Amino acid sequence: MYNANTYLSATELLARFKATTLDPVDYLETVLATAHSQQSSVNCAAGIFADEARARARESSRRYRAGQARALEGVPVIIKEETAVEGWPRPMASLVFKDRIAAENHPIVDKLLEAGAIPYFQATNPEFCVLGHTWSKMYGVTGNPWSLAHSCGGSSGGSGAALAAGVAPLATGSDMAGSIRIPSSLCGVYGFKPPFGRLACTPTDEYFVQAVEGPMARTFDDLVLMQNVLAGPHPKSYTTLPYTPLPTTYGDLSGMRIAYSPAFGHPALAADVHRNLMQALDGLRSRGAVVEQVTLDWDLERINQVLLDGLRAIFVDEFMLDIPPTETDKLCSYVKFLHDKALDKKVSIMPSAILTQQLHREMQAKVWGQGYSAFVCATMLSTDLAADQDPVLEPMLKLDGHDVDAYLGWVLTPAFNLLNRYPVLAAPTGLSDIGVPTGMQIVANAYDDETVFRVASNHALAGTSRLFIDQFPPAA
C-alpha cells in the first residue's frame, strides 16, 4: 500500500520543513519509493529523475538551515511530459520523436525552480496530448489509482494519476479541450485552467489561445500556492499579463449568486455524477450562496467539432504534416486519424471565433448580465470509461442509454477552451458508484480568477468532497 505520508500537502510540507520536523532530503526518498512502486500498477511515470532531485533536495535542506527558504522550497513536483524541462526527454509520447530532448525549460518550470520546488517525476500523457485518456504506444496505459481499469482522463492524465498515487502534492498540466479539468475530476484533485495570458506560454504558442498551462494539486490551498508561483510575466513571453497574487484565505459566499446547468441539457448525464454535483451545490448554499439553475441548451456536438477544427487550423494540422510519411505506422490510432484528416480537408479558425462570441453573449444574457458571479456545471457525463478506450476502434459510447461521440462527446469542457479568457477551476465532488471520483467546473467571467477561487475555497470548507482526508485511492 502507499505510504500515507506521501499524501502530505505542500502547505503542510513547507510548515514541517520550516519547523525542521521533516527534512526535504528524507521526504524526497519517501516519494521516490512511491514513484517507483506505483509503476507496476498505475503506470504514470514517463521518467523519474532521482539524482538531480536529490541534489536539489540537499540545497533546499541547506536553505532551511540558513533561513533562506523560497516559496516552494523542497516540495516535490510532478511535470507533465509535454512541459519542457531542459535535458529531459520530450517525445510527446510518440515513437516518431522518441529521441527528442528539451533544449530549455518551459517558463513555468523556470518559475518552479526559482521558487525552490523539486521537479523529479515526469508524468505520462497521450501521444501529442490529443486524447481524453492517457495511453500510447510509448508509455502503455495509465490507470486511475481509484480504479485501475478506468480512465484517469487526459491529456494531463499522468499528472492527475500521480497526484492521486501519492507521488507529489503538486503537478503541472495543460488544457486545450479539458486536459487539466478532465483528469482532475476523474482523479479527485483540483485543477485550474487559467484564462489565456495569466501564465506564460511556450514561446511561439502566443496565437494558440485555446491552450494554456495550469496547476493541479490534491488540496485547494495547494492549488492557490502553486498558481501564485506560476502566474505572471516571464522574460520568454510577451503575452503574459501583470499578476496580483490570489488571496490565501476567503470569506464565505454571503450575497453571491451562482448559476448552474448540470450538463447544458445533455440527457446522458449519469445519475451519480448529477447526485454529487447537487450535493456540492448544497454545500455552496450552506456557505451563504444563492444557487439557481439556468437553461443553457448548448449544442455540445457542434461546440466540440468547432473547437477541434479551430485547433486543427491553428496548430494540429501543421504539426501532423511535419510527421514524415515513412513514420506514420508508428502513430497511435487516434493520432493517425487526425493525421489523415489533416491530409483530407482544410479547416478554418473563423467558426471558432464566431461561435465563441455567440456563447459569450448567451452567458452574458443568462448568467453574468443577470447578476450571477459564477457558473457551475459537471466536468463530464460519466466516470465509467475504460483506461484504454480507443475512439477510433469504438467511435460511439453508450451512456445512460444514449449514444455519444467517443472522442469528446462524454466531456463538458470544450466550450471553455473557446471561451478561453474565462477562468475555470475543476474541483472534486465525491465518488461515483463505481468508485471513481466525480468533479465539477467552476467558471467566472473573463479574467475574474479570484471569484472561482473564492467559490472553490468555500466548496472545500463545506466538506462535501474530502477524498484525500477521508480515504486514499485503493491502488497499491
TrEMBL record:
Coiled-coil annotated spans: none
Residue ranges crossing the lipid bilayer per the database entry: none
Amidase domain span: 27-452
InterPro entries linked: Amidase, Amidase_CS, Amidase_dom, AS_sf
UniProt record similarity statement: Belongs to the amidase family.
Protein name per Swiss-Prot or TrEMBL: Amidase
Species annotation: Roseateles koreensis
